[in-house]
Amino acid sequence: MSSFTTMKELEKQPFDVPRYGLLQALLVVAMIPGQPRILQIACLLFVVQLSHHLITKTTTGDAAGDLGLGSAILTQILVALDLIFFRDPNTLKNLQEPAESSRISEQPFSRRFRWALILYTNVRGIGWAHEPLHLPPRPSPTKTRRKFIWDRLLTVTGCGLLELVLTVLNASNPRMTAQDVALLPTYAWYWRVLGVLCFGVAGAVRIEGLYCILSMVVVGCGFSSPHRWPRAFGTPLDAWSVQRFWRSASS
User: Fold this and answer.
1) Of the residues 25, 90, 99, 233, which has the fewest C-beta atoms closer than 10 A?
2) What per-residue string of b and e applies to 188-203 under the rule 16 or more CB within 10 Å gives b?
3) How does the average pLDDT of the chain come out, rounded?
4) How many CB atoms lie within 10 A of CB 163?
């Protein structure tokens, strides 16, 4: 158990996976176009209640994991709110599917449910008409599934090795293993900078690795094509201004 675990965290319940699954299902249902507004609002009210319970009353046992899950839940809610209240669903077109003669809000329920599920699991809108213009590089349309999986496997291996090195560096940093957190601001700036860089880069590397694993599974099972899986992050060498950082390195 981490030495930074507080008594308040120890009093929390274990993270409730079934409730988290219910939260995801309610968000998708709320996003289905053509639904009565009262049903969407009811789903969102349940979502708020579930989110509050998961974020404040449960824990994974790891403070960083709790922070990540809490951030993910809030992001998912904001994405759903945007798609429900601020966008006309009939303007969101999936370019990978045949054009429909009627509006999506007038399609059968099964078609509308599938539309909402695909869009909810594709936050960046890859392959849709609203796809961002500045996405990181993506595989060529001619790349085979086998070659794609092999390339991503190499990336995952590299991410794992790099994260291991960064973790060792942080564990070897005497200022990052101090028992008294209050003393951290008093340490030399270069120790603190090293700790922050190692922690931040390790987090980004882990996200890239998990993203690659997900892409390998989805593409390998035939649910998607390699061309629809650009890198999770762009190159930091393009992020030489605040605008380009958010546009190029984090798109």
Assistant:
1) 99
2) eeeebebbeebbebbe
3) 85
4) 19
